Amino acid sequence: MTGKDTTVVGRRAELSRLRELVAPPHTESHVLLLLGDPGLGKTALLAEAARAAGAAGMQVLATTGRESERDLAFAGLHQLLRPVLDRVAGLPPRQAEALRGAFGFSADPAPPDPLLTGIAVLTLLSELSDERPLLVAVDDTQWLDRASLDALAFTARRLESERLVLLAGARGHVPPAGFERDLPQLLLRPLTRVDAGLLLDAQPCPPHGRLREQVLAQAAGNPLALIELARMIAADPDAGHRWTAEPLPLTGQLTAITAARYATLPPAARSALLLAATADSPDLATAIPGLSADTLAPAEAAGLIRLDTPGPRFAHPLTRSAVYHAATFAERAAAHRQVADALRGQPDRHAWHLAAAALEPDEKLATLLEESAAQAQRRGGAAAAARALERAAGLSPAEPDRARRLLAAADLARSAGQADWVRELAGRVLTLTSDPDLRIAARLDIGWSLLWSNRNADAIDTLLSVAAEAAPKLPAIAWRAAWMAATVVHQTGLPEVRAKARAALDALDALDFGDGSEDWPAARADEYRLWIRACTDPFGERVEIVSRLRRLTDGSRGSHGSHGPLFDPGTVGAAAWVLDETELAVRVLREALSRLRAPGVRGASGGVLSALEWACVDSGRWDDALAAAREAGDIAAAYKMETVAGSADLTTAVVAALRGDHEQVAPLLARVRAAVDTSEYRGFAARVWQAAGLAALAQGNHVTAYAQLSQLFAADGTPLHHHFSYLAVADLAAAGARCERHLEARTVLERALARLKPAPGPRLEQLTARARGLLAEPDDAEAHFAAPLADPAGDAWPFERAQLQLDYGEWLRRRRRINDAKPVLATALETFRRLGAAPWTRRAESELRACGVPVHAPPAAPGALDGLTAQQREIVVLAGHGLTNGEIADRLFLSPRTVASHLYRSYPKLGIAGRHQLRALIDRQSTPQAGG
Hints:
The protein is mostly helical and 932 residues long. The radius of gyration is 32 Å and the shape is globular. Helix 30 (622-639) packs antiparallel against helix 31 and helix 31 runs parallel beside helix 33 (682-698). A five-stranded parallel β-sheet has the order 2-3-4-1-5, with helices on both faces. It has a two-stranded antiparallel ribbon with strand order 6-7. The protein contains 45 helices and seven strands.
């Protein structure tokens, strides 16, 4: 911007890109992040985009992050949506209730649910864009409260066909939280020397000669610096000499210039300007005495603020910060108290302004902040609630209250997914108190934070020490710590960690808890015990562990004799998945999800969905696996769960590899590696290598496949991961056989299998038999292939079963046993077609043709849905069952417009004219998934 007009100088390319986004025709969604250092013109560009959007007929909604409101839950989102709040009532009921609760409009809000709040925002903006193209402009996102930021990030990721453009400006070079993945960015650079000179010459009193060169050098292409330094030189030509004698960073220079200009104002204007900086909201101008236009006129003349509707606006966020910090603490405190007095009707803001004015502990004020935290928590602002409790702790006169509030803040920070902050808060509890119960709870929080910070070695030591110390008196904490430690075991696969976790379980089992207590019944310990044993040794003593699992899921509660539903079906279902009780796992995990989809507890479904994804892959429910992965991805984004997001991407990559969608695999695996440290999380590493190997096998790149899959075992047979490596033994053997590495592959395979105890279960026995058959001498292969096919238990894993049948059928054909090969190959082909495993379908068809069997493409009608994406298929099925677009959107966390767009694109693929034909088409489908 210039000092004379509103022309943006030196941003031709950036302006062109923004104007393109908002220019007609408005047919699709766009998201763009504007990043850059302070003063480079992000605000000016957003303003120009808003002007161009208005001229193009778009509706514009805007919000600006404010430093003073970053601890107020949903403050930024409320500012954005305030012009359209009357439309909230028209949303689906649970979405409307979520948004009303977030804004504090509901006397009895539903339990907070970030995902539901996000979909409410998406639906509202989508409906607005249906009526008129919409621009959403968000400035200074680095200061948005976390709850608002999360809701907007969710919306940005879910936009598809809405006539909506979302522009977000943020200070620095790193996108704001939630906006990091796969969103376009525009990074502003300093102006070129030529453009900087043009901007400088456009100022009301541009410097000349040596002073001009000095300003250009000092500003280093920063537009705000050019304007402010030019203004300073015009007022004080000697200022340039001081810059040379006392060099400051650029932001320091700008702050010093602003502070000097502030100091020259009349006292009344200074007081009013400090009030405006303290309130940090133009909307509060009418509520706070002393902010009249006449009083602030000298500040406007000095270029520090602009007076417009609805109130005074600072020329730049740096200006507001400089004014605020130029005042003494006593002056700032007086201003905070004056603002607080004017905001008694807004308890959150009232409490925070009083807190900013406090120097000494004050229990009354600490209680006010604690009440504010409770209100923020009810509205879904976990991070804001944690900050309020942290400040309340700082104001607490009594040590026990300080420790209690810090621990509560740590628990809320954990809900917000901020592991480093959890560790800091819990660490402060340990320095404050000797209370054993508070200390053990704080250490449990520290263990959780270490786990989610990829510090697995520290996490396991902390969690196991908590389990040992808590066991005698606090069984709930002891078992939870051991449960978390077992999760570390399964993710890392490190042998020494497995041994430690098993020792902890043995120590817990040695204690007599009787029937437990009201808050921790013994039956719940049975469920956690099952998970710990499954994680530490999924193949050893499997018969006994599976027997325990079945007693639990049949309703019996072990030796304690109680009956009833599972306390934690997510944990039991995940254990069933690890133990390869796949059908049982799907059933129990779905039961868990039915409980966890209620508002307020949805965040706990991330781990359940991760297990369900893999159980669905294993059992041949690949579309269900993709649907679970998509939901898990939403949960992960809403609750900051990197490993859940990684698992969702990995599941999607595996299904893509199996179906031959090769172009999807590499980007997904790269995203997993970027999100999860595979050197720490060896379970992820093993899955990534297997997925890459499968993709290579599907494309016939057998040497590459063998190189990838060989990473799963060391030369001496040591597995990379004690569970997942063994699930790839048949793939490793297939790659080794096809690239003529029989001896090498067989040696590694036998060394690896020798490490297992007998009876590892029917799944691994089937995989092992296929591997040995592929690597055996031709005359010896049949015994390996045929044995598992005689056991119907292997049908629980249809793709692996069909692979075995394909390899056996190929062996039979090559032995010229054509009549024996035909039914085996036909059965394999039927499975591959049903699953959509195109590369293996082609192999099976080729083998049958070699047997002299004519192979025809399957009829199109019964499998019409197979031509749709997983998401389109979900939408079509729900629409066929009579759900409206809004109801489908509400269920699948999409906007109604996106649902309509998917349906519109699906009709030609299905060969139908419209929605009225969907029910009949779905009823005709004869492609049930394995196991239902």
